Amino acid sequence: MAESSSSSKPMSADHSLAATLQLDGILFDIVIECSPTDAANPTLEGLQMAVVDAREQTTDAHPLDRTSPIMWRYRGVIELLRDMGQLVIIVQSEDAGEFGFLDLTGKISQYLGSMATVRADSYKHKLITEGEPSLWITFAVSAVEQQPFRQLLSVPLSKLDKLSETPDQSEESMTGNDCFKAGTNLLRRFQETGSLTDISNAIEKLQLAVSFTPEDHQNMPLYLNKLGNSLWRRFEQIEDPDDISAAVECHRKAVELTPEGHPHMPARLNNLGSSLFKHFEYTEDLADINAAIEHYRKSIKLTPEGHPDAPSWLNNLGSAFATRFMRTGDLDDISTAIEHHRKSVELTPEGHPDMPSGLDNLGKSFLERFDNTGDLDDLSAAIKHKEKLVKLAPEGHPSMHSWLNNLGNLTSKRFEQTRDLDDLSTAIEYQQKTVKLTPEGHPDLPSWLDNLGNSFLERFRQTGNLGDVTAAIKHHQKSVELTSERHPNMPSWLNNLGTAFFKRFEQTGDPDDIAAAIAHYQKSVVLTPEGHPNLSAQLNNLGSSFFARFDEIGGLSNLSAAIEHQQESVRLVPEGHSDMPRQLSNLGNSFLMRFGQTGDLTDLSAAIEHHQKSVELTPKEHPGMPSWLNNLGNSFLKRFEQTGDLDDIVAATEHYQKSVRLTPEKHPDRPSRLFNLGQLFFKRFMQTRNLNFCQGAAFNYCLAATQNTGGPTLRLRAAQQWAVCCGFLQDYPASLGAFEVALKLLPLVASLDQTVQNRHANLLRISGLTHQSVTMALLLQRVDLALEWFEQGRCLTWSQLNQLRTPVDDLRQHDARLAERFLAVSKALETSGSRPETSWQPNSTITQQIAAEDQVRSQLKLAKEWEQLLKNIRDFPNFNNFLLPPRASNILSQLPTDGPIVIINIDDVGCNCNALALIHGADEPIHIRLNNFTHEKAKLLRNQLGYHLTYEKLRIRDSNDRGGRVARRPDTGLHHILRELWHGVVWPILQGLGYSSPPAKRNRIWWCTTGPLTFLPIHAAGIYDPEAKSPGPCVSDFVVSSYIPTVTTLLEKLKNDTTVERQETKVLLLSQPNALAHAPIPGTTEETRNVLEQMKETHIEALLLEDGEGTKDRVTEEMGTHGWIHIASHASQHPNEPLKSGFYLHDGQLELLEIIRQQLPSAEFAFLSACQTSVGDEKLSEEAVHLAAGMLAAGYQGIVATMWSIKDQYAPKIAEDFYEFLLQEKRESGAHRLDSRRAAYALDDATRKIRGRLGDSESALLTWVPYIHLGL
């Protein structure tokens, strides 16, 4: 395509359009205007216009003709294409440079696409300028297929202004009537084309008609009236004050010359009123609007009953009264306006095209009266008439999106008065329709998106629904994306976007959200000019975001930035401004926080001073009052803690209680205010030990926890504190209720609408809840409840993953479509939730930010649909418990037959240690008290083991040459740790299970450990003395040990074992002896090659991937077809982000997050011959976030893993002995495949053999003890 086809270069006046037929349209009749006050501005001399086209090329500047003191005209045209890129009109002068610009990028298609088929459309915009003078631009647009454009194609542009002249008759030969007819025709054509040329030529002809006609001629009033109408029309286009003044005089003269009783008198009086009305809008002279009202009234008085124009004239009179009211504030005027507007609507026939505008004006008048009186009936009436307007307006009406937006704003305004959420939801519906109906490129679309975002954000404030704040972010982002940085509203829209991120951060604690909020607030402040009235509020918001980030992650620089911005905000806000209390309160919060860091009493005094002033300046009924009172209470409480002055605690109590009393029942901040009051009472109790205070604390914690609004994390904390108070009050039955509430809130804190990483981060804050709950249930001898709560609260993320992978065969028989949809949503939700977490980047584009936010919103939508599908499924008979936490009776009915499951629960608060033994055939769990073991003892042993392993350099798999050790040898070794575990934990449990001596045939036992015990080798507990003549007792004398993260995990593996048909064994062997940046481990080569030979000898298919063959893609691909996998490599456990732990392959790390995303139908068994593959994050011990658990989640039935680094020289032999046991059983039984259910026995046999070779020395124990079996 030729380059010229995409050009928007202005064409010179003598250029013909004959060669431009490939264009889609033109932009012409370009007029630049200034305000009358700027007419004498010398910088406006020599105005020029330039255009930046789609190729970002700037045309030469073209001079503009000054046609009046306030008006300049460009006599060329601009070529248009529907799909053209950039189009910017720039107005400048040689001396003063650029005055302003209009960015039409993206709007051309809208202009051309929305036009009627027989006319041109006119547009008027204010140029974007920096300071004075203000300039406006008016232009017309015509599409290529339209009549005005076709006329232009054959006419040189130099004759554009003569286009409307009558070609066959000169002015000298024309009569007044001829001129009148010509002017009337031109006026009619102007009404079709919007061409300034047409209206100007019409005025010229009508002026000639008047000049050719004697004053006493009967047609003179007609000619004057028509001339006045034409001048009025041109004034609407270019706002030349001479035009409207002349229009008034013409209409006044027309009325004077019209005889009394003439049938056209009412119409001419109405026109005179309209000219005076328009003149008033320009001059603001009350005499004009008073005269307009007088003439409108006289017009209506003279209008006969049933006259078709009566509704329109009544509407004009109502509008005049409404306008005068806005100037004078006289309520009689607005009431009169309503009366006339109402009568106008009543007289307008149904279906009449004027009905929408009449209803619109009636609604506006009711709104004006509401804004001045606060009478809700007026607001409801405004909404009623606007709703009728929308209902009656024809589909596709060009003003529909504007009316819907206004209706949304009205219902939102009523919500502000009534706090009725139905109004807010209705406002959102209207605003959503507005956005849907508005075409891309419409200049008002960013504003309407911003309104919609604000409404969603307000509903989030009321309900705490995460979907609302996410929707708010979406619409604010789109508003910002569609807006130029130079747009005057951009700072405001950036500020609103920042607020949406800020509010979501308050709910989720996601650091990316507060980073985004700060970035958008900062940009908002930078783009806001000095002295702008919004700057103070924007600085306040920026300061608050820094405060929130400090509260979350610390860093005094954040707090200093908060105070700096908030102080500047307070300095800028005008005295008496409604925002002053909020900003004072926020500044007080920052001073209070800094006092907590520095102990400087000056900061504490400043905090109290600002909080007190905030409350003093706030009206009693102001919705912010509860918040300011709450903050003031915080300051007094902090001073009481510092000084012990009882007056301060009394004041704090008073302010907290008043804050709670003023907070509506369903307000999302009510739980936090109740929690603060509970904290105050609890602190008083801890100081005085007065149980009355403890009861007050319990009461408020209970109320906070059981609210239906507010963030789940705070409500869960309240439930935990409620349980603590019940403990002090020795009201143990009530504590069960508190724990029940807390455990029900737990899935909301780590909900499926979050990524797995975020769920883990949120769970970090509430560790210990499950153990405390179980301990309380056991204290009250509720062993069934203890089991149910243990399963409900432990390994939440693994349980959620298991739920998303639940088979639905039974459901499919009832409703196949529902089953398939549930599977599809579950799969999508798993994929979304396990996506890698990407931190927010301040330099990312708004488009990139929107794409990232789309992922968040998609996951939230999926989570909501999944919850709804669950409800639908549970409505079916026999499915009412589908995916609900299991009942104890259900668990007990599905237990394995070949050994017990033992749960060991350690409570870090009560320091109690208890075991629950689950035995096939038993009616209830067996409660075994471990009276000689505590949480502190477990922590001590874990720390001792950690130090010992560090000393021995056993944190990573290594060759024999492991380098030096830490300087000091540990005081205790593995012998001591295993002995303590035997005496304190294992032997009491074995005794509780009925063991007194080793049995002839050993059964299985599955250990489910908690807290520090998850890092200790329970399976190897015993008395090991290398000097003794005979070995002491140990676990393996009695049972064959395995571990499980939860009971449900084992039950699912049992179910899979009976329902999944296993194919012939296929083994994948992976060896990585030379992983990049890690010490060589040559034993992995020997290990995997030995296993390969074992498999070949017994005709089992095996594939060995060594070194470069073991890439991430190749390994994950082969895992899909091989049911068994043996990995001999380095592995890592990431301490802060456990999902980034993984195995080191040839081309990088295969992370745990990637492993759990695999769904492996053939998965059966995995041997993880690498270091620490069963060791998780100490802070997340209850989630069992380690590589072995990830392999279980990916579908493997059983796992061999390690608790610490294995020794490269012995690993090959242990692996060989392990597989030899399984192969020997295969040979003896004649089976065609390996039996993974015998893996625990195989590992037991292999470790016994290595122990037999090495003995019971410290070094020998460190060699075989780390090997453990998990799963079935």
TrEMBL record:
Transmembrane segments: none
Gene3D superfamilies found in the cross-reference section: Tetratricopeptide repeat domain
Tree of life domain: Eukaryota
Pfam families membership: CHAT
Domain CHAT: 977-1271
Record-given protein name: CHAT domain-containing protein
Upper taxonomic lineage: Eukaryota, Fungi, Dikarya, Basidiomycota, Agaricomycotina
